[in-house]
Design brief:
Elements (H helix, E strand, L loop, with lengths): L5 H10 L14 H18 L3 H7 L2 E26 L2 E28 L2 H9 L3 E2 L4 E3 L12 H4 L3 E10 L10 E5 L2
Parallel strand pairs: 4-5
Antiparallel strand pairs: 1-2, 2-5, 2-6, 3-6
Length: 184
């Protein structure tokens, strides 16, 4: 029997209402998610220099084109996206996270996880659900507008890029985000 921690119960309870925020319900299935992923990738390549090069070096990419996050004491986020390998969609995933603390507001953003090794991609695809955390390296735009990635970061198994943020909550983090395979 699986033990549930208070945090996992709170995360699920906080994120369930967000599931109906328009990025999952009646989404038109895989074709709708694929269209959103295409648009998100075009935006990322145009707005975050260096990501196209990163994509060519990656074994695969998980693109979450729209994640909706809201909080008032308890918070949660939900989104759906696609895993792309060699430019083709191979699976669909949902992302869910929850939080507790001083927070109020809402935001939407997109993010892409770049799997830099075949082993990292294989581990992601064969696991029952990945939790983003210590094993994920965050790449951010520096003041010059270029992606801040050096050769040591490219050796990291998973690199995350968050982009397209809009809303009233400052910042977006993927810490504690649970990814699970879905059938759209």
């Amino acid at each position: 029997m699986q033990n549930f921690t208070r945090r996992s119960v709170l995360m699920s309870a906080a994120a369930l209402p967000l599931a109906a925020c328009g990025n999952g319900i009646n989404s038109g299935g895989g074709s709708r998610i694929d269209a959103r992923v295409d648009n998100a990738l075009a935006f990322m390549y145009a707005e975050v220099p260096g990501t196209r090069d990163l994509a060519t070096q990656a074994a695969g990419m998980l693109v979450m084109p729209l994640v909706t996050e809201a909080g008032f004491g308890f918070g949660g986020a939900y989104g759906r996206g696609a895993l792309r390998v060699g430019g083709a969609t191979v699976d669909y995933y949902s992302a869910i996270s929850g939080s507790f603390g001083f927070q109020i507001g809402a935001q939407q953003y997109a993010h892409t996880l770049f799997f830099m090794t075949e082993e990292a991609l294989r581990n992601f695809r064969t696991s029952p659900g990945l939790s983003a955390g210590a094993g994920v390296r965050y790449a951010v735009n520096n003041e010059a507008g270029d992606l801040s990635i050096d050769t040591t970061q490219i050796l990291d198994p998973v690199i995350a890029v968050v982009y397209g943020q809009a809303g009233l909550i400052a910042g977006a983090t993927l810490e504690g985000t649970q990814y699970s395979r879905i059938l759209p």
